[in-house]
Amino acid sequence: MPAEAARDPAVIVILGAGGDLTWRKLVPALHSLGAEQRLPSRFAVLGVDRRELGESAFRSRLREGVARFSRIGDPGDESWARFESALHYELGEFADPALYERISSRIDALEKSWGSPATRLFYLAIPPQLIEPIVLGLRRTDLPRDRARTRIVVEKPFGHDLASARALDALLTSTFEESQIYRIDHYLGKETVQNILAFRFANAVFEPIWNRRYVDHVQISVPETLGVEHRGAYYEHAGALRDMIQNHLVQLLCFVAMEPPVSFDAQEIRNKKVDVLHAMRKVPASEVQGFAARGQYDAGWIRGVRVPGYRGEAGVAKTSVTETFAAVKLFIDNWRWQGVPFYLRTGKRLPITASEISIVFRPVPHQAFPASAITDLRSNRLLLRIQPREGISLQCQAKRPGLPVRLGAVDMAFRYREAFGADPPDAYETLLLDVVLGDATLFMRADQVEAAWDLMMPILERWESTPPSDFPNYRAGTWGPDGAQSLIAQDGRSWFVPNLPDEEEERDTTP
Ligand code: BG6
Fold this sequence. Notes:
- The protein is α/β, with parallel strands linked by helices.
- It has helices at 20-35, 55-69, 77-84, 97-114, 131-139, 162-173, 191-201, 232-236, 240-257, 266-279, 288-291, 416-420, 427-437, 446-465, 482-489, and strands spanning 10-15, 43-49, 87-91, 119-124, 150-154, 181-183, 215-223, 292-295, 297-298, 300-302, 305-307, 325-330, 342-347, 355-361, 381-387, 391-399, 407-415, 474-475.
- Helix content is 34%, strand content 19%.
- 42% of the residues are buried.
């Protein structure tokens, strides 16, 4: 995970450069990296798309995106002028072999002008059905054969299920070596996610209690207030389990549950994470109901604004049975975690947007305080907040001031902004710089992706073979379907609700 700057010349070819990802994420991230002198001085972006944009329209659209979405904000004329001279545009159809010849010649010309060969990144910012023609197009050129300098970056969704993920891997590895393939899960680029490793493995005090002896259970919650917006057509074929749990939430789980690595070498970290996936218990198809809950939002209110139900969104079928909420209970069959449930949940149109992990510890073995002292006894909870208000807090018991003796819950807290005086970089900044530098630690290896699909398959298959009869089953602006509450309540536990700035206390959502 380097924080250094890249020095060797580099060309980033963005295939699908007219789309949202380039506008909102990729170019704003590249601009911030450039502004902080982390990109090589000999650097270019070649945007490729089938839209008739033209170089100057392409550049002005990107400037607007940088102003709106980058961490740094409006670039200012001078800084933009420096950056935009590195932005180029190539019009073309992805299925047309001639396009790849043109791309190849443009790279040659850049290298010639720099007097040096460059690192070439092909970033696939396109829908999954275009991956094949692009890989086949690139295969016809010499570019993929330069194993050391040519890399391909693949966005999620990485397949639709285990079989399609394997087929996609076969396609990619027919042209590129695994070491050239960078599968992005943008959650891994979040500073707070990487901080889980620092927190666990750079401190001596947590590891001894990071196991089944002390941990009662773990919760990973990623609620979102947004609906599916303009992504209805994609989301109809995905659903919450595929869109969020199979990748982002399962990756968070791996960071929490992995064994200490011997080093921070990319293969070592990825081996330790895949070990977790291999140890995860697959839910038997006949028991899916006891381990997973799904929901779909109906019309409702989010922060005082009336919003439509999922079935009323653009691109969504009126009788859709796609889940917009999913919760699962998972177990890891190894010495460290045997018997400790990991509860994961995510959903669209929930009351709050946040991502957090709660490690909930077992109660003390013997309670010596009188009952009158402990009216509000809570187990210790370590809260890793991925976003917003990035930070970590440990909830403990303390004596309230005065007599008689009474205990109260308090937080020992660390917040990024207060501790380090700066907001963390955007996940795409970290990940793009890593690809330029050739560091794959934060990217998914084929075996990780496949193991994560394998884990989800019984739930996906069960849900597909038994369509829900109660959709929509939660109102927008509420905490999801009743089934999600029962999933955890049947074990005598309840979901924690993110404690956001204007809220003092966590609210318990058990009905
Ligand atoms: C994407 C999902 O991968 O992650 C979206 O496709 C989701 O549905 C998004 O909204 C959440 O990312 P973040 O970084 O905003 O938490």
